[in-house]
Amino acid sequence: MKSSDISNIDISNFLPHRNPMLMVSSVLEIDENSVATNFQIADTCIFLKNKNLSEAGLIENAAQTASGVVGQTFFDKNDVEGTGNKLVGYISAIKRIEIFQLPKVDETIVTKAKLLSRFDTGEMTMCSFETETFLDEKLIVSSTMNFLIHEV
What we know:
Layout: E1 26-30, E2 34-40, E3 48-49, E4 52-53, H1 55-71, E5 87-99, E6 108-120, E7 124-135, E8 138-151
Antiparallel strand pairs: 1-2, 2-6, 3-4, 5-8, 6-7, 7-8
InterPro entries: ApeP-like_dehydratase, HotDog_dom_sf
Protein name: 3-hydroxymyristoyl/3-hydroxydecanoyl-(Acyl carrier protein) dehydratase
């Protein structure tokens, strides 16, 4: 899927998550090795702690963002509705995470993920990502995580 094709795509068609677990508002850019998303923090978010997005919410946002890189390869390029497949992904390891700041309700974060490695077994994909989350261009989270992604 080309970056120019993503402006009208409903990301919830491609992630198994639904509100209140959906932690990505939209995809800003995506290619075969990287992705950028945004997420506006609503006061209804289940990952709030004292009007801030919690550490668990930041991790879930990074995971949902990163899964888009590998996840897109399970769909036909012309499938803009996400009807051609259903995927499940799991965080298999958080290798490193640094959280510098918790964003507040009504703020919008931008999360970027870069594919570090990928191994396809035919039934499952094992992959590793580096992620960074920004608030007003200030780095607030940096992580490296491993995932397992498979069709259901």
